[in-house]
Automatic annotation (TrEMBL):
Belongs to the glycosyltransferase 9 family. InterPro entries: Glyco_trans_9, LPS_LOS_Heptosyltrfase, RfaF. It comes from the Bacteria. It catalyses: an L-alpha-D-Hep-(1->5)-[alpha-Kdo-(2->4)]-alpha-Kdo-(2->6)-lipid A + ADP-L-glycero-beta-D-manno-heptose = an L-alpha-D-Hep-(1->3)-L-alpha-D-Hep-(1->5)-[alpha-Kdo-(2->4)]-alpha-Kdo-(2->6)-lipid A + ADP + H(+). Its EC number is 2.4.99.24. Keywords: Glycosyltransferase, Transferase. Signal peptide: none annotated. This is lipopolysaccharide heptosyltransferase II.
Length: 350
């Protein structure tokens, strides 16, 4: 790849799952412009995901506070970007403040969706369909002209190395030779997206009863520690207690990605880690309540999206507006275990 080739800048979404689902855009850009380096400008919390993508040449971390305009700081940062010689930029967040950056940097071709009052800042304007497309083709479409026919999008694909897996297992205190099942009980969006801790605990007991040597890792950010503690309290005093580990907040995002790459299966709410698991092609059971499983479904080769599809869902609310949370509470552990069990290796020690 020539150092003199025009560079491409991709401005990342702020959420882990969205960043994963944007990766097919980079696959298309690499195919269309094979000699052009692709850099990604991403928030620090999302940057580790981009570093696991083979299409990315360099990850630049945004220095801005979340939600703040910081116009002077954006102008200064745009000057630094201008010196890197970008020919085009793809602005994935739909906000004005991120569209300002490539405009201030003098990047000639600035691609994105209509968003909030971005005419002029975005000069190759795309418009979403009604109803909206699933997220993967939504982002991938930006690689083509706004009026181009829609084409099937490739699957997102992250990669981890054996060295990353070994290091992450050591950090988490997990035995790499034992079967590992990962639970992702958190959800940044709000409590409505969380399957009840008691259901996760019952599922852990079913796994250990069937696979006595299995390890169940509760994975997430420091914000998810409390809900994972509830699961640990619910399995206390059962045979599963010795096999379940709460490592929420104890691993970096890069380490969490490596552990997911090593797991036999993942059970997750609709969250960023769900899409990480899909992008690593791990068997996935995805649990949906207030969100639409058709909008951001799992895309692993072996995957199941479970939803009761009640009349009141998808409500897309952070908390249940009716107060009963039936969309999650009535999806019991037995149903999830029935779906998960065939995904696991047949041998107990596999």
């Amino acid at each position: 790849m020539s150092k003199n080739s025009p560079r491409i800048l991709v401005i990342s979404p702020n959420w882990i799952g969205d960043a994963v689902m944007a990766q097919p855009l980079l696959q298309r850009l690499r195919a269309l412009h094979p000699g052009h380096p692709i850099d990604v400008l991403a928030p620090p919390a999302v940057a580790p995901v981009w570093r696991q993508m083979r299409e990315v040449d360099e990850v630049l971390q945004t220095p801005f506070r979340h939600g703040a305009l910081q116009l002077r700081e954006r102008w200064r940062y745009a000057r630094l970007l201008k010196a890197r010689g970008y020919a085009e930029a793809y602005v994935l967040p739909n906000t004005l403040k991120y569209a300002l950056i490539p405009w201030l940097a003098g990047i000639r071709r600035r691609v994105g969706y209509k968003g909030e009052s971005r005419y002029g800042l975005i000069n190759v304007m795309h418009h979403d369909d009604v109803p909206p497309r699933p997220m993967v083709p939504f982002y991938a479409a930006l690689a083509n002209a706004p009026d181009a026919p829609l084409a099937p999008a490739p699957k997102p694909a992250l990669q981890v190395t054996p060295e990353q897996v070994a290091s992450a297992c050591a950090t988490a205190g997990l035995a790499p030779e034992r079967l590992l099942v990962v639970f992702a009980p958190g959800a940044e969006f709000g409590s409505a997206k969380r399957w009840p801790p008691q259901h996760f605990a019952a599922l852990a007991q079913a796994i250990v009863a069937s696979r006595p040597t299995a390890q169940v890792a509760l994975l997430g950010s420091p914000k998810d520690r409390a809900v994972c503690d509830e699961i640990m309290a619910a399995v206390a005093g059962t045979p599963a207690a010795a096999c379940v580990r709460n490592i929420a907040g104890q691993t970096s995002l890069a380490e969490a990605v490596a552990l997911i790459g090593h797991t036999a299966a993942v059970v997750s709410n609709d969250s960023g880690l769900l899409h990480v698991a899909s992008s690593l092609d791990r068997p996935v059971v995805a649990i949906y309540g207030p969100t639409d499983p058709d909008h951001a479904p799992p895309f692993s080769s072996v995957a199941a999206a479970l939803s009761l599809r009640l009349d009141c869902s998808p409500c897309r609310q952070r908390e249940c507006p009716l107060g009963h949370h039936d969309c999650m509470r009535k999806l019991d552990a037995g149903t999830v275990w029935h779906t998960l069990q065939p995904m696991l290796p047949a041998a107990a020690g596999a």
